[in-house]
Please model this.
Amino acid sequence: MGSVLLLLFWKSAKSRVLEYIIPIWEVTGTFGAFWVVITDFAFPSILIPAAKLYAVGLMLFLILFVARNSSIVFGEYIIKRKWLDDKKLYQLYSVSTIALGLIALTIFSSIISGAGVSIGSGYFSISHWILSPGSIPFLLGALVIGVGLSPVFYDLKPFMRISIPLTVTGVLISVLSFYLYSPQLITLWLAIPAILTILVPVLYSYEKTAGIVANKFVFSIVASVILFSLHPLVYPSAFGKTLPVDSITTGGAMGQAFLVITLVGSILLAVMIFIYMVAVRRTALGKKQAA
Amino acid sequence: MLAMIPMELFDRFLFAFTIGSHIILVTMSITLIVLISAAEFIGIRKANDYYLALSRRLTRVFVVSFGVGTASGIVMAVELVNLFPGFMTLVSETGVISLFYAEVFAFFLETIALVIYVYYRDAFRGKYTHWVISAFVAAGTISSAVFITMVNSWMNSPNGFNIAEYLSTGTVASIRPWAPFLTPTTLAQIAHVITTTIFTGGMLIGAYFALRYLRTSDPDEKIFFRNGLKLTGAISIVFIVLSGLTGSHEMGTLLVNQPLKYAALDLNVLPGSGMPERLFGYLVNGQFTGGIEVPNIQSLLAQFETGITTLPGLSQFPQSDWPPLWTHITFDIMVTGGLLLGLFLFIYFVLWAAKKKPYQLKLILYGQGILGAASLVVYELGWITDEVGRQPWIVYNVMRVSTAANYTTSLLIPGFFIVVFYIFLIPVTFYFFSRVFNGRPLKADLKPGPDDGGVNY
Model:
């Protein structure tokens, strides 16, 4: 979301977007590592077929990830010299992040629909994926939703007018993409994420509720509920309803270890996030008092 | 044409190249956080602005190192899956995956603590509270390294499942998910890895300080870099001693748990007692040649460390299981290099104890400049010895690299891109280390503003 704003509206969006992105880009990167490892742990038997399927995509993902991290950290500290300045580096960050998002969305869409995937031969065909009718609308829908919600997330009032139409359009394109993949994917469940997604910019357009929905904590919870409510797309079966998820999840002693480490790790994570929030709050109060 | 490239070799090369580059960043990160924390503590304790400025400048370098290192770490994680799927299958079916999982939480500790430490400097009122956060960052950074070293220890001495059944049927059974947290080699390896890493980083950063001290004529900068040299000097002296002790213990652990690797590193053809220490040289038709033999020393050291008097020989093992014997040379360069570095630091220590201020002596400073780079070579050779010395196994006596490797040629082109990218990335990252470290006038770092988080907007 922030990357699109940085690319399209550098001057007006820069300070609000960077104020948020810069302190936490390391944390979002760590969540990337977390996602890779948790997938290894939770679905050990699919690990190798998945690695074969997405080998090229994952390699490209890695290069872009290094480019993303390097460019933002260099941008953060660079002192302008000749042609290289922070704007160019943040633009490189934005392009890398958007490209990363597109690769991730391509993989997610194929996990949902099975488009381009041949599990038996361990092969993912990008051309088959593109030719699948739902693929391009899927990417487009997700991008439009992302851009539509970004003014809310970054609390950018000047962009408020585009927020509702873009979000509604994005939701409609996304629902269409699911239908084009397979009418089986359309269930009543989808109403929950669709309504919640549209509700976010609607609430932002009212003065009384704008502050609540733009609050990062509230926004994150709503985003989590939206994502969790999309689970019928991949459960009980993924890859176009061909692979039963329960057949590939970890269990037994490993399942118990997974649970214990998750519990202990989550407590540690919660404590650290609490300390982080205290620090953010105190700093904000300090700035207010100083002003 | 691509089909002609042997994929197992390519997998080995790509991973070795990536990890060889990655550990440079890891070394920097681990040492930097130790230096940052120590400099801040001394700065607060002695009310010394130069140490506090040093801590601030190193923090900015740490953020760059962390950012690039994190991405590089994820490259390693995904490369393991892509290049050695057989290995990662075994990892994900056994408790080893728990180590990766625990590592990610250590990573979270490091990341979030770092965010607070860097960007919310003024959130805590007590002088020492901010310093305590640096200890959290250090705990996260070092824990990450510890968990990854545990994975490597497991590769050297696997446990936590029924190995005999796995070897005969290929089935992973009787899993004990917590066992990989403590294998017979874990403690020795962690001790050696952490101490040598901090030592190497201390020498590298000390070398930079030494060269900067020699070049500058600014009185403030002289004091600033002198303080930096004192800190890196003290850390290097402490950690070379610890590296030596843990290295000797590591060799004893190797003798007990990986006798073939031990025999290869010492070029023991036949088992026996009263073995000489062989310095350099190689085998021709089973005969040692081209090196120096110091009588009985190998046996004496082994007996002192483990109590074992009869040492293993290569002839006890099938030749198909032997690692490349050039690891004997890399091992000897590592040990000799470590001893030379130790000698240099001993002189440094003696001069310091005699109040001769070695951190101001030109000859010592030039020596430090050269030996800083040498320490990285020694460190890399240590890892090469460890990893190549385990060959042909990826998991010792359980799985060969040839079984674990991915033979898909589609990895070739992205793999070459990764190599090119790293060739570009590492020098650029070090260039930025220097830019970031020197980005502002020293005076600005000596008297920073209240909101000085280092963000450039």
